[in-house]
FAD-binding domain-containing protein
Amino acid sequence: MRVLISGAGIAGPSLAWFLAKAGARVTTVEKAQALLPHGQNVDIQGSARKVLKKMGLVDEVLKFNTTEKGTQLIDSKGRPFAPFPVQKGTANSFTSEFEILRGDLAAVFYNATKDHPNVTYLFDTTVKEVISNDDVSVKVELSNGDVQTYDILVLSDGQWSKLRKQCFPEDAVKVVDKDMFAVYWTIPRIPTDNDWWNLYAALGRRVISLRPDPHGTIRAMFTRMPMNEAHRQEWLTAARGDRATQETLLRKEFTDAGWQSQRLLDSIPTAPDFYFQPMQQIKMAKWSTGRIVCLGDTAYAPTPLTGMGTSLAINGAYVLAGELSKLENGEHPSKAFDAYESIYRPFVEEKQQIPSLLPGFVHPNTARHRFLINTLASALSKVVRTPWLANRLAKMVFDESDHEDFPLPKYPVFEEEPAVKATELNTQ
Ligand SMILES: Cc1cc2nc3c(=O)[nH]c(=O)nc-3n(C[C@H](O)[C@H](O)[C@H](O)COP(=O)(O)OP(=O)(O)OC[C@H]3O[C@@H](n4cnc5c(N)ncnc54)[C@H](O)[C@@H]3O)c2cc1C
Ligand SMILES: *[C@@H]1O[C@H](CO)[C@@H](O)[C@H](O)[C@H]1NC(C)=O
Ligand SMILES: *[C@@H]1O[C@H](CO)[C@@H](O)[C@H](O)[C@H]1NC(C)=O
Ligand SMILES: *[C@@H]1O[C@H](CO)[C@@H](O)[C@H](O)[C@H]1NC(C)=O
């Protein structure tokens, strides 16, 4: 089976890993010149940890942990309070052991596949046009001018996939706005920085966060909930605009936010990885058409508010590859695509649900609201540091993130162990 994958983020390379193991030949095109180091902490939850284990990549992911000591709040005078330290083997913190920077995770999957003899990556390359998609094959023209035919084409080029627009009718894709915006970038570390995730609730529905990374720099984030509809439109316009427009808006809206807002605003112009993201979900009526199938954020972006984008992409890659591996010679891939969707869609829909009051609760507008949050957080912080209480409460407050939240189907090709490393294959 010859497979073309569009997009080397999280979903694309994890799919390539499983497809290569099942004996397929995989080509992945990526728009960027090199693997994007962008993005902040992502958490690998539940069943996705089991998938990592099947890939033999657990140690690799732990090695690139974010080194974060835990989560703490910052008060209006800039002082930390309400610490939630990471406690190994328990879930009593907002920081998990399986937290890794998005860019590092993408590199883990890329590194684990790039030397496989049946996997090829083409950077600085996109699918320019899908020429045909029929019973026999899918034919494409790449941006480098090559015309190629494949058995299937996988769209894993993210939430804003242009190819999805080309391949599916407009009414097949729904964008659900979640009324919140996030901006991420990396800044130089200074001696007063620490190894905690520091969260500061500025009033007026703004939050500022600073957290460490394993590369000696600090990851900064602004999040913002608009005050009304006109304000929301202003932010949506900036999201579609260029970086200068976005910087101007941030300067206007965060200059008076307090704490380290000035330092952060001043660092934006030189940030290598500035990323402005409206919280919007993708919902598709059907994930495939003919020989073309969507995976990860392209098909079902849940937003970082759920903490599930990465896990959905990883589990999805496993199921899609598994179903494809079950096809008999000559069978149309739509059979596998339909199975992937019917097995996986209920879980995706469950995980796309966001408690509607949560984002508003953590973005206080008034001093009174902030006082309430701070009081609750302080109390909770004391509780989780009292072991016997913590064990009872953790299950209520924090996700039991190690349990198998999605029952993984078993596929014979992925059951043998242990996975031979791609680098070892090359030297055989
Ligand atoms: C730069 C960036 C930063 C992110 N930061 C965070 C974060 O801090 N926190 C968080 O929770 N989630 C973040 N995400 C989203 C997160 O990666 C996804 O929710 C999740 O991991 C699913 O990944 P994915 O592979 O489906 O999509 P993505 O990770 O978005 O990967 C899509 C890939 O496709 C490439 N691409 C785009 N267009 C084309 C094209 N036309 N042809 C070929 N390739 C193309 C992109 O360059 C990218 O490498 C970020 C995504 C990106 C792209
Ligand atoms: C987390 O990363 C640090 C430094 O990058 C490393 O020393 C530590 O061993 C890692 N933790 C695990 C569990 O691998
Ligand atoms: C990927 O491989 C490169 C080159 O060998 C290495 O520098 C990098 O640290 C690796 N990254 C991860 C996340 O494994
Ligand atoms: C690569 O694919 C071919 C079939 O196209 C297969 O025979 C071979 O075993 C694969 N190589 C590896 C290392 O999986």
